[in-house]
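Posting for a labmate who doesn't have an account.
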Amino acid sequence: MRASLLSIALFTFSLSAAQAADFPLASCAGWNGTLVSRTGTDSSTAVMKGKVTQANFREYCERDPGGETTAHGGKLTVKQCVATYTKANGKDTYRSTANCSEGTLSFVPPRGEPLRVTFPLPEDADVSCASGMPPLIEQFKLLCPQAAREFQLMDDE
């Protein structure tokens, strides 16, 4: 009985930790989403889904890269900033799929065109924030950690 309760507690903790993880989005200056699910890690059918939450908008508004809040020269309080983005983007969902053996990642934003990238990246690839590549690299690392190590995308290599 104790082993079962411990297993249930550890399983619940794992789910809670996974759900609290960031879903990196394709803009260094924007907000991250919250990871809702991740399946098929290190496979040809790896998928992760995310959504944005008030906590994501709060972090963004407190960091305020666009100077919208009073603390950064803008006109909004952090609370007003969060409310604005929650109203405009609060139902946004995100999805990324990867084929780890082929080194491909497809990111589907709520609006606009899906983005697709193949790893390893060319040596001259633009990996600056302006390119939108850093969050895509992070998504690939979450979905395909073994392949990411092989492509030397992980810090521990």
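Reply:
Got it, the structure tokens are right above this. The beta strands are 22-23, 33-39, 46-51, 93-99, 104-108, 115-118.
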